[in-house]
């Protein structure tokens, strides 16, 4: 299981606009030779001949008849090919030239900063993201990327501002804030929405239940450290809060702290021994770790307490324990 802290973005983007343009122009005559080379590059790339595609993109640039905009597209596309061939220095040069030619080109900024993040050059990535967001302040994917970097640097206020703005502009980005392999996604954890950020950014929670709700909101938005703080605050004030221990367990699991998560589930069940959801959720943990014996026990316990819940029976059926 990969910790949800390490959110996975689609790493690199080709220029769909440039490619659709050259395809659209192919039946015509009298257009720039650079466009012809760009089209040939795309065909070579589609056929898996990346070296030839790079040559054609280079020819397209050398023709000198492409507009700055289309030069930027070609440079960006060639940069992604250099990355495919594990030549990051050339890729970096292409992405930098691309944004210098077209300072509002979000895809090239995205690719350049993705490259720096992959190289653990987060300061350089952040510097370029700041430049990009001056030019294109409502680019949701760049806002999200900068917010995640701020979060990793523990600049939580700035991170929340960027990530919430990204989700407000492009709500579907909420689906990538939690690792899709997390077994609690769709059950205990929801896809992030702007409502989660409203919960987080509102005034201090008025009750312990409200703290647990905020912990869940932090969890859904990928702010796991802050979620854990809220859960532990509730436990400090109410040491028998099984809800807080269950939240803590799922947060710890999402951080990759599996043994600590099991202990938190154990404490939740100590204070709520007849709660089927806690058995079910602990069973999901064991199942994700490949421990089918303990998972079977927990799913059986959940089902014995509430035989009306279909998801408990579904787990038992998958394990071959019921028909």
Uncertain ranges? 1-9, 16-30
Q: Summarize model confidence as the mean pLDDT.
A: 91
- The helix-strand sequence is HHHHHHHHHHHHHHHHH
Approximately how much helix is present in the residues? 55-70%
Shape, per Cα inertia axes? elongated
Radius of gyration (Å): 25 Å
The largest pleated sheet is described as: none
How many extended strands?
A: 0
Individual helix count: 17
**Structural class by SSE content:** mainly alpha
Q: How much β-strand is present in the residues? A: under 5%
First-to-last CA distance: 29 Å
Task: Looking at this protein, list some descriptive labels.
single chain, 323 residues, mainly alpha, 17 helices, 0% strand
Describe this structure in words.
The structure is a single chain. By secondary structure, the protein is mainly alpha-helical. The protein has helices at residues 16-25, 33-46, 50-62, 68-84, 88-101, 106-118, 122-135, 140-152, 156-169, 194-201, 208-220, 224-237, 242-254, 258-271, 276-288, 292-305, 310-318. The radius of gyration is 25 Å and the shape is elongated.
